Amino acid sequence: MPRPLIRNLLATIVVLGVLIALIGGAVFSAYTSVATNDGNQFTAGTIGLTDNDAGTALFAVAGFVPGDTYTKCLTVNYQSTGGVQSAVRLYGQSGGTGLVTYLDLQIRRGSSPPAASPGDCTGFTADPTDYDGDGAGVIYKGPLGSFGTNYATGTADPQPSWSNGDSAVYQITITVQNNNLAQGLSATQDFSFEAHNL
Fold it and tell me: Which CATH number belongs to the domain containing residue 120 in this structure?
């Protein structure tokens, strides 16, 4: 093949290579734009219940006789962050030597002015609603031994959703049944108020 022809062929190949490179560059070039959303943060909400018992038991009773009745009040307050709402249930744990069988329990829900001392019921006003057919504000009435022992079996507070700052006063009444078998027996009882977020 003559040299001029080879030179022309090589020149053509070089030109084609340059054109392909330019075309390739054009194909892989594009306008670009990126939108970012930085600094996202997540904080878990909190819930909490407090009461006004000042760390002391509501009841400390000795020497009672059949028919005796004892009443105390407890204020329960709900706090939350992040707008978390909860449902509240009441339950308890019993102990002793069998007196629980001969004690009746009534819990009435309501409101009252700030208590002068733990357990004080001065100014207590029951909720006007007859929740269970046992009278205004009554949410539990029955044997102490039948009171729920955990959240699942406990008594639901009638307010379906508690929000930060909500509170309720519970008037707790214990009555000794008229039964001779109660003589000499003892009982202990813990009351628990538990919130579960909705």
Answer: 2.60.40
